[in-house]
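Service request form, structural biology core

Requester: graduate student, group of Dr. S.
Request type: structure prediction, single chain
Budget code: on file
Notes: please return the result as structure tokens.

Sequence provided:
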Amino acid sequence: MNYAKNILETIGNTPLVKLNKIVEDIDALVLAKVETFNPGNSVKDRMALKMIEDAEADGRLKPGGTIVEGTSGNTGMGLALAAIVKGYKCVFVISDKQSKEKMDILRAVGAEVVVCPTDVEPDDPRSYYSVSKRLAEETPNAWYVNQYDNPSNALAHYEQTGPEIWKQTEGKITHFVVGVGTGGTVSGVGKYLKEQNPNIKIWGIDTYGSVFKKYHETGIFDENEIYPYITEGIGEDILPDNVDFSLIDGFTKVTDKDAAIYTRKIAKDEGIFVGNSAGSAVKGLLQLKEHFTKDDVVVVLFHDHGSRYVGKMFNDDWMKEVGFLD
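Core staff response, request fulfilled:
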């Protein structure tokens, strides 16, 4: 009989799906790595399990412990699924800009959720970085995950996601396009692919209000680049250790409005119901179209599922409220 011994064994081996109508202006073959097929419906399941297993192995996470993390939702879901199977408690700190669905989903899988304000400096004691660190220190037998700087994050994608993409494209991939947040996916996949073929181009998708693009191009961390934005799951107001800028060939920035509109467009044009960062990635891909030729094989990663955004990007009233729909 063919079955998984628990839900964690179903993580990975997600499909590559050809995009058609939405990329008809692009000459290349464009393939989406649809990470919603993971059990927690996002790419973050991969690194969540890897971070937990590595912390168990070296004693940072002890039996019956509490996992504490600041998350925009998806990493929390991956950590929660692994915690259920392995017998840990979870406390997740989330910023108030994240969708209500993400908070409800985390509570549904047994996590305690603490909500913090978005519009504060990273080192402000109310920020989700500061609160998650403090709770980890105050909670007995707790382990603070710190996905931004935890090397197991990028390692998961170096060991799994990169090799999967290489195998699925039979080594024909020429470009990898992905939204950059913690940096684990872009750096892990990028490192693996460039080791196989240094000519493969790695493109990061950034958002307005984030520091990545300017920092990559100038080496300057410009605080004037930082301001609140609506797009979820990509961009940062810090430089996570997991972002290896030397592996990234370039960034393109996508507006909040374009990201939201293209999130809806992917569902209507392709029948693929995915989240906000996928909208950013597809719009970014279209902005980069002069970099692709008809012989290229472009892989774009779709991070998470559309069900997490039904109250926001997929809701006409919300879209009108923020000025994205007439």
